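Here is a typical protein record:
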Amino acid sequence: MHSSVSRIIRFPSSIDRSGSTVELFTEAADLIKKYLGVDQAIAEGLSLWNASTWLSDVLPSPPPLMISAPDMAVGMIAFQLFSCTSRRALGLAGVNRAALGVLPMHLRPTLLINQPDLPRSTWQLWLSSNHRGLHVPGKAGAVLDCVCSKAVFLGTAPSADAWRGEALSVTLPAAERGLPILDEQAMTRIADEFQPRFQGFRLDWLSRWRKGCSSTGKLLFAGSELAQNLYACVQREPELIQAMTPLLSSQEQEAMTRRQLDPNMIIVEVLWDPAHQERKLSVKKITEYLNVRLRTRGEKYEYNEEEIGRKLGQLGLKRHRNGSGMVLKFSSENSRLLHQLARKSGLNFPKVPGCSDCAELEVMGAP
């Protein structure tokens, strides 16, 4: 470990197994309310996410956290708190793909990233690689393991589809007058109290898991992957599960609503029937059909042909130009990719008789 890393990361100085899990989570939530002025539901959600950082090396996909706030100072107070209570927290800025190769990922750190201008390609990489057993190609033939807990401050107006509902998304209120100051002395006191207690929580959880009382490899709860991984941290605590259910249910509903307005998903919807009935479709028609669907779902923004053409290219669907403009041919390559995109998006289209790509999806167990 580089000396600069060891100076930043706070490690538990001892193990404290006194008190119950409910008491620990409640006191952590009270601490968050005290310094951030958030309501009870947000405080409990952040407390549960904080606990998940202590199990990031065994959860199938450690839940990411996205934070937005009226100003950066509020977001940084949250990060200062997490640097005291999360497992091996490491505050960072200016993170890109190249930086992944030099970070101490073998420590399974909790990355607290202050990067409002975080490139879309970077967080998409983090999302896709945030599953146990997946690796990212590195330099000189090396592969990188990027599975760890991550919290990202995305500024005052984060992307609406960032992590597409697979992260716990929280908007912090403006700083209120009268909130206590989180100085270095307070941070040291908080770390000295909560680091040993969360280490005790981790060891107790791992002990039960190794005895077969827990299983992170099974779907223990209904709902999204986010909910399953968060609930897994407190699966023996029905009181905590009940308290968290409204917040996670609300987030899942918001994610479903956003997906209904995702142009990439609507492109697949628009192309499904024509792909089985026609030989080609102009980008102009695709754009018209897409905008009609958006309007029926309450979206006022209208895409133009150039924007939809770029999105088709980003999805890998190849177009070509003819005398009337850009056209998408339903070639065997485009048809196969369209079916793969439908499966990846979870779109439950009826299988078309006689379509070999539909038959292949059915064999693979797609909806």
The domain at 3-257 is CATH 3.40.50 (Rossmann fold). The radius of gyration is 23 Å. The chain has two domains: 3-257, 261-363.
